[in-house]
Design a protein that fits this description.
The chain is of the alpha+beta class and 186 residues long. It is 42% helix and 34% strand. It has two domains: 1-43; 44-185, Alpha-D-Glucose-1,6-Bisphosphate, Chain A, domain 4, CATH 3.30.530.20. The strands form two sheets. It has a five-stranded antiparallel beta sheet with strand order 1-8-7-6-5. Helix 2 (57-64) crosses helix 4 (157-185). The protein is elongated. 19% of the residues are buried.
Length: 186
């Protein structure tokens, strides 16, 4: 080996620790991202709004599942179409303080007089998913509690928690009030 070859070999050896650091840093970054993605999809952010209505579960269910009439009374989901049955896809247009958004959730549960639940996804899933539910609970003769909830999961959800609370939750309350009024004036 000549004297001129030694500095080149030393330079090459000097670069290897740099690559190792880069690989370690990349592995750490991927681990952090994987942990964040796992956390954001296993720890949901939930909105909840309830109202008591002087009505039967069947009366509330009838209004809730009359999708064609949403444009007549619903200030939040201003239009909806599809079939309320498990596995069906609905087309819902939602309005809140940020404007209108159309989404196509899949019905997960449709138990007459008790529960309607659907899942909407932004993208392929795990990005911004919302599992929306309407629970109808009999609390006395001719009286029910309607609880509207949505469990949000996905990597973008933590960045929108404030907006969901400030702009979407009031729409849950508005829809509950309008549904109660619709049921009692029918």
């Amino acid at each position: 080996m000549s004297l001129t070859e030694q500095p080149v070999q030393a330079k090459r050896r000097g670069k290897r620790p740099g690559w190792r650091r880069l690989l370690v840093a990349s592995a750490v970054a991927l681990g952090v991202l994987a942990g964040y993605a796992t956390w954001s999809n296993t720890v949901p952010y939930t909105l909840r709004a309830s109202i008591e209505i002087q009505a039967t579960p069947e009366q509330v269910w009838s209004v809730l599942t009359d999708l064609d009439a949403y444009d007549e009374w619903n200030p939040f989901i201003v239009s909806s179409s599809g079939t309320v049955e498990v596995g069906a896809t609905l087309t819902n247009t939602m309005r809140d303080a940020t404007g209108e958004t159309t989404f196509t959730p899949t019905v997960l549960t449709a138990t007459p007089g008790h529960e309607l639940r659907w899942l909407g996804k932004l993208g392929p899933g795990a990005v911004f998913d919302g599992e929306h539910a309407f629970l109808i609970e009999s609390i006395g003769p001719g009286r029910v509690r309607l609880t509207q909830t949505e469990r949000f999961t996905g990597i973008l959800v933590p960045f929108f928690r404030g907006q969901l609370h400030d702009k979407t939750l009031p729409q849950f309350h508005a829809m509950n009030q309008a549904l109660a009024q619709r049921v009692t004036t029918r």
